[in-house]
Amino acid sequence: MWSFPEGSVGHDESVKGYDLEAKDGHVGKVSWADYKPGESYLVVSYRDGLHERHHVVPAGAVRNVDHERRTVTLGVSTAEVKATPEHEAPEATVDWGYVDQFERGMLGGGFVWPYTDV
After folding, report:
1. What DSSP line would sit under the chain, residue for residue?
2. Measured distance CA(4)–CA(100) in Å, rounded
3. Are 44 and 57 within 8 A, CB to CB?
């Protein structure tokens, strides 16, 4: 869940600044990414009215990275991205305790992310 799909990001590549597409359309931009094996994530930024919001999304949600088009495609919806833990600033340290609570289904409406409607 916390790793990019194999082969999607090389050791000398970054997805920072890429457009982010959810299953149901554009969701924002990648403001920050961490590539540590088993701890990889994206910080997604988007405008919500007058405020800029930032959310931590596990790299396992990534389905495709198109370096030529500078686009990351996710296998989850915009609502699912916005249900992930909010983050104070793109480059701030991730609060793994908070993320762990979310991952166990305590936050975001009680479902374990990524939610799949079967």
Report:
1. --SPPTTSS-TT---TT-EEEETTEEEEEEEEEE--TT--EEEEEEEETTEEEEEEEEGGGEEEEETTTTEEEESS-HHHHHTSPB-SSTTSPP-HHHHHHHHTTSSGGGPPSSP---
2. 18
3. yes
Q: Is the peptide bond before 90 cis (omega within 30 degrees of 0)?
A: no
Q: What is the pLDDT of residues 75-95, one digit of tens each?
A: 889 998 888 878 777 677 777
User: Which residue segments constitute the domains of the chain, with CATH numbers given?
Assistant: 19-105 (2.30.30)
Q: What is the reported pTM?
A: 0.77
